[in-house]
Target: Glycosyltransferase family 4 protein
Amino acid sequence: MKVALVHDWLVTHRGGERVLDALCEVLPDADIYTLIHRPGSQSPAIEGRRIFTSFLQRIPGIHERYRHFLPLMPRAIESLRLQDDYDVVLSSSHCVAKGLRVPAGLPHLSYVHAPMRYMWDLFDDYFGPGRTRLPVRVAAHAVRPWLQRWDRASAERVDHFVANSHHVAGKLQRFWGRGATVVHPPVDLERFTRLPLEGGGQGGYFLWLGAFAPYKRLDIALEAFRALGAPLWVVGTGQEASRLGSTASSPHIRFLGNVSDDALPSLYRDARALIFTPEEDFGITPLEAQATGRPVIAFGKGGALETVNSRTGLFFSEQTPASLADAVRRFETWEVGFRAEDARSQAERFGRAVFQRAMLSEVESVLRVSRKSPRRVAAV
Model:
């Protein structure tokens, strides 16, 4: 089976790229098509493939400034041409990857991490007052209607969608009018289950981990823990680093920057709990924390409702510092009945092999359907 894998961009190695890595492992002959690629930024399983990039790759400084070129991304993904005869196209999309044009008769299966969130339901989180400079906000408002139209129209070119959560499947129906099956993304359990469950949570700190993107709402955690006077360790960096770092004046809050993959399991295991503030489309970090045997305090919307249960964590109902602080106070009592083995058992439901088997089944299914019926062709 010859597969063309399509991914938005290969600049950092985060959740979407870990999904791509898992797909590469079970599709050993697949080529990769992407907007841009920073060589050396990915796992060996990805870097070892033939990787084809768009015209954006030739722009000086693109790897640092690619977000500024969002209006060009639809044109860039549509400009890519498949370089071989393939049996199926499998896109891994959170922006424009699902918009690749494929030859008539070639089935296209798209695994969607999220619709273009900054142009749909999270537009204000990215471009609202105080989030970015006025010229950027004006430009975003100007291109938003066109990008939404392109996003809906290009979705018609896909034969079948797989969403990474029921939460995202609902968005695909709402924004694109398309149904989807659900396959949860993989957790690299082996990294987080090597440490014993006994003795966890002894570090005394709470842990927040993620990219400093607006919708991640690290600001909520910083304000809540300043008010509580409780220790919060923050792992990550990103576009809001300077703004958030300048407001985090508290001896109880510690910024660790990016942490190596080898150091991360111990950080999870020694934390009292993971603090999870975004309304995430899925969210891998709660499962990583549970795999090490630690509970989660999460905002009670989005993907967290599919990965955390009443035995493995607590939810706060409003995306505010006060609501989070209240949950942290309740945690003091709830923690007494927590069992680390319950958390690990929950995480094991989302293992890498489970994801790989499900995705291979989806690929085989779309191939069977394509052989039985003529492909629907939609013009954009």
